[in-house]
Each structure stands twice: as C-alpha cells, then as structure tokens.
Amino acid sequence: xxxxxxxxxxxxxxxxxxxxxxxxxxxxxxxxxxxxxxxxxxxxxxxxxxxxxxxxxxxxxxxxxxxxxxxxxxxxxxxxxxxxxxxxxxxxxxxxxxxxxxxxxxxxxxxxxxxxxxxxxxxxxxxxxxxxxxxxxxxxxxxxxxxxxxxxxxxxxxxxxxxxxxxxxxxxxxxxxxxxxxxxxxxxxxxxxxxxxxxxxxxxxxxxxxxxxxxxxxxxxxxxxxxxxxxxxxxxxxxxxxxxxxxxxxxxxxxxxxxxxxxxxxxxxxxxxxxxxxxxxxxxxxxxxxxxxxxxxxxxxxxxxxxxxxxxxxxxxxxxxxxxxxxxxxxxxxxxxxxxxxxxxxxxxxxxxxxxxxxxxxx
Amino acid sequence: xxxxxxxxxxxxxxxxxxxxxxxxxxxxxxxxxxxxxxxxxxxxxxxxxxxxxxxxxxxxxxxxxxxxxxxxxxxxxxxxxxxxxxxxxxxxxxxxxxxxxxxxxxxxxxxxxxxxxxxxxxxxxxxxxxxxxxxxxxxxxxxxxxxxxxxxxxxxxxxxxxxxxxxxxxxxxxxxxxxxxxxxxxxxxxxxxxxxxxxxxxxxxxxxxxxxxxxxxxxxxxxxxxxxxxxxxxxxxxxxxxxxxxxxxxxxxxxxxxxxxxxxxxxxxxxxxxxxxxxxxxxxxxxxxxxxxxxxxxxxxxxxxxxxxxxxxxxxxxxxxxxxxxxxxxxxxxxxxxxxxxxxxxxxxxxxxxxxxxxxxxx
DNA sequence: CTGTTAGCGCGTTCAG
DNA sequence: CTGAACGCGCTAACAG
Lengths: 363, 363
Prior knowledge:
The structure is a homodimer. By secondary structure, chain A is α/β, with parallel strands linked by helices. Chain A is built from 14 helices and eleven strands. Chain A has helices spanning 11-18, 22-30, 37-50, 56-63, 79-94, 108-120, 139-146, 170-183, 204-212, 216-231, 248-259, 273-285, 303-306, 319-335, and strands at 68-73, 98-103, 125-128, 151-154, 164-168, 189-192, 267-270, 295-299, 313-316, 343-346, 349-351. In chain A, strands 2-1-3-4-5-10 form a six-stranded parallel sheet, sandwiched between helices. A five-stranded mixed sheet of chain A has the order 6-7-8-9-11, with helices on both faces. In chain A, helix 5 (79-94) links the parallel strand 1 (68-73) and strand 2 (98-103). Strand 2 of chain A pairs antiparallel with strand 2 of chain B. Chain B binds a DNA duplex through helix 1, helix 2 and helix 4.
C-alpha cells in the first residue's frame, strides 16, 4: 500500500520494503552509481510488486532536465505542420524525450503565452515556427533564449536573433516553378497568396515592402516569383497578385476576379495547398480546364495532388525531414550550447506532372 | 542576479529583493491567500525586474497537478488524428493546460512506453486512440486508470475497460454509404480496406472473426457494409474485400486485382482517405472513369475531395469535434472522478457529390 | 559499495 | 494580514 496522499509509492517506500537505504534504492532505480547485484535484485523486486513508478517531476526538479521539448506552430491540424511535428516527435522519442505542442493561429498573444508556458514548464528546448516577422516582434523568443533555453526556428527564419534555423529554399522553389511556367510560354501568371495589404498595390515597390513585413516564407516566395519574371524580362502586373486574407475562400474570390478581368492569367502559382484548393474551386466555377485553359503549380505535394485529373505539378517540401533536422539540431544544441548558430536549408523538388501546358508563344 | 545554479530567480529571491517574507511573495505570485496591496506592489515590482518565472515543476510537485495532458495516437502526421489533436489542444489550452503528444504507429510497445512516460510525468489525464483490440492487450491502459489517472478513449472504443469513450457511429456511416451505392443499382461493391488476414477468407464467418479481432473502427465499418448487403439481400463476395496490409499501395494492388477479375466491382467503398488515394491510382491505371465506369464513396471528407474531377462523395467525420468532446470529457472527469463512464457517439455526414452513378438495374 | 544529509522551488499549515 | 517551518520525491555529495 502506498503511503503518500497522492497514492503513488515513493522511492523510500521501496527502500523500506526492500530493507535498504533510500540511496541504494534510488541508485538502482535511477540507474546510476554502484550497487551490488543482490541489493539490486531486492530493490527491483520490491519496486515491482509495489508498482513503483519514478516521479519524473521530482527527478526533473533535482536534475534540471525535463526530457520534454516544446513545439510551437500556427496549426497542428495543418498538413504541413503536422508533418513537421511528426518528424520532430519521432527523433525526440528516439532519445526518449516527449513533445509538448501548442498551436497559435499566427496570433502574437497566443505565441507569447505559449512560450511562457513552455519556459515555466522548464522544457529542455523549443522548436518554433514563429508568426513574428521582425526582431522587435520576437522579443518573447529572445527572452526564452536569454533564459538559457535552446530555441530552434523551423520553416520561418528570423535573422538577427542568433538562433539556429531549419528552413527550405523558398525563393529558389518559387523561382523554379515560375520559370517552368514561363518556359511553357506563360507570361500572365497569377500569384495566389501573397502579402496581405490594405489596398491593392500598384507599384512593385509597395508590394515588396508589404512582403518584407510579412512571413518569411511568403515574402521569399514572392521574391522568387519576381526573380523569375525579371530574368525573362516579363513586366510585373499587380493585378495578378492576391493580397487579401489568406484563406482558401479568398483565394477563390481573387481567382474569380482575375478570370473576369480582360487580362486574365494563363497560369496560376499557389504558395500553399489551401491556396490550391481555392484556386481549383474558382477554376471549376468558370468552367476552365487544366491545363488546356489554365496551367497550375502549387506548393506542398500532398498525396491527393497525384490522383487529381489531371495530376498536379507541385513543389514537394520535405516536411518530415524539416522536423527531423530541427530536432537533431536542438538535441545537439542542448548538449553543446556554445557553438555558433547556423542555418540549415533543405531543398525542395518540383514534381512535374500534367497541370502545365505549353502554350508555345515562345521562339 | 539569480542565485541558483539553474540561473532562474526563485520566489525567495523575489521576497528578498522586495524585502518581505517568502510566503508573502509566494501568495501574491501564486495568486492565493491575502496580502496587502502595498506589499503586493512591492513583490510584483521585484518579480518584474528580476525576471521571475514561476517554476511549474515545483508547483506541480506540491499541488499534484501538472496542467498537462497526454494524447496518444497512431500518427500525428495523419490528417484525421491531427484534426482530432487540434480539437483536443484547443479546448485544453482554453483552460491553460498543455498537450503532450505521442505517436505509436499502432505499435503495442510504443503505446506501452508512451503510457509509462505519461504516467511518470504525472499528466492530469490521457486521451488515447489505442491500437489494442482486446481487453487483454489493453493492460497498460488499465494500469494508468488504476493509478488514478483519468483516461478517455477516442475514436476507438474498447468496452470493458470502464472508460469514457468518444467515437463516431462507424457502422451506421458505412451502412448509409453502402445503401446509397445499392440504391444506385450497385451490387458488386468493393470494400477497401478491411481486416488484414493471412489468407483470403472464403466464408463470411472467417471474415467477421478476423474483423472482430481488428481495430474497433475497421470492424464496425465492415459490419455496416455487411448490414447494408443483408438488408438488400445481396450476397457477400469475399473477393471484393481487401484483406492485405493497410497502405495506399496495397489498396491500389487489391483494386487492380479486382478490376482484372471477371466479376469486377462497379463501385468502391474506401474506409479511409489513404485507401481512397490507392483506389484512385488503380482506377486511373486501368483507364476507368468515375462515375461512368466505377462509383466511389470514401471516408474522411478532406478539402481536396471536393475539388476532384468529379467531386467525390465522402463521409465527413467531425474530427475536430471528436477532439473537443474528448477533451471536455477529460476535464470534467478530472474534477469529478466518480461518475459512471459513458460513451459519446458523434454522427457523421454522407456528403453526396458526383462520384456515384446510378446504373439503374433496379425496379 | 552503502547509508546519511542536504538541497531543488513552491504550497501550506500554524503561530504571531 | 504576515513570516517561519515543513513536506512533495528525487538526485547528489559526503562520509563510513
């Protein structure tokens, strides 16, 4: 029978039952220090039939290690983040450390409260895909870092914080996709979802400014789009950029607007899979066919992209690997806190299927 | 300057800095007991510029509450589970409690080790979608329950454990879908994925036996399929049941096999979205059209189902709500440990779109 | 190799 | 209303 109020047998209960000192019991149960095989057996047996479970809280109190790490993302329900999470949790679990997950919906308050909760719970480290776009807005992250908690930025970098970052090359990914479209003869390419702005930007500068104040991933993708246009000397048309709120419903609406314009796009580039969904809805509503009437390339090669009619050309992001690398980096950072922070950039792959048609307006 | 080795300022540091007793500091910082506004102010200020963060571990040690709950599922990377998780985490976070997530890949060992980790970390409760199909195989769950940790079963029930269960009506969902197909005139309906068996069952009994030893959800779905067949007096054909390992690749292979058989199915029912992906691949490979050549209904109404050509008829599961209900139930269970366990059954919705064609072989 | 003792940081009596 | 003292369960020096 357990003696404590909480009901759980403690290490002293075991020691008593085994007829040895606490420390001996603690040593064998904790797996440290020396203890004779005979005593060990006695302790183990006593522990067994008392149903002893080591109290991780108490252990953490004295060791200062919780074997728990925190993960903060916008939405664990999202396929991208849940893929990353899986990668993180898998590699963490291999080292028998658990994962605390918090979704923020890109809300600053939620992110701050998440960080605080994790700090208070004394997690061994934090992996975060922050909604902050500026150093000033990332004070809570700097705080965690200053508390001595290792922090890894995943998917969204934020230079200047002096933290390790694990990201993909968003700019190159977007550039390659747009190039693929341009090479197929397209010149009017819609960019479905860009930086949200209050009014539609007319100048390129306005747009770039808005983007630089936006999420790392989104602004990089826009830059890549612009890069490709520049390379081919194609003029930038602001009416082809979606700047409203990022929901698949808004993506649909903006696409509809573009289709109804005299200078409608002949191709669409979507920066996220929800954007693809929205674009696809609009395309169907207007009775357009892919790729005959409109070509499409999107981000995130989910399994369904391949079974669409026609199969969609997509940019595959290594979600799981992103998580694995972030977790690895965190683990080594926990050991060795003193090396210089670095950025790990994973590459994407443009999976060419049948959603892009050559419209042969090229020499 | 912090005095402890861990670097973090403690409540006594604050007390000292504020020139008051520990208890006074503890009371204001912990938000309990009485303390004069003036002292309170002094303490708060001292805490502020010392950068004090309450140590949740220490607090949990004395209160016995961790404000943390554990979630165990097969795969957080899976869209169904990540949806459920989101529901759980959302409602938990509203009560400022965090969520520890562990994936098991349906492995018994991983599930056991997950439960142990959670018990040791003294989570306030556990929500699990267990891989165990029998009471005997669920001993680890019974153990957690006996340790006094509230446990809620989600998505997969296991009667006899005496635990609360939050599930959907799998049997009715499958039955309705099959009925819809039958009413459209179909009599040869493939069931893509059923209980894995070593050899293809020839008798209905064999199959049902295999199913009853399978996951709760899967066996219920098979029963629903059989129910509908029985209602209409349609004979059961074992060659239409997929009994190999559950991967989309195997789903594809089994579909291919069925298509090549003289008695090919005219409709397919898929019990999971990965099964749909596999079936869709096979359908394309054989050059079949939906719904002209083959009708299809699947589980899990993910956003992409609606933008397929044609839009797919799907069974929508309330994933988020499943999580919300499970979390709610857990929270009330944590308060009030003494009420009788109950099963909450959420209903699904058959979303009829264009993947089912009437083949009019009916009066 | 083993037992004793002192923290870890906070909640919580119990006098004053 | 305030402060001193003890306990939570475990690790870690330190003697023996």
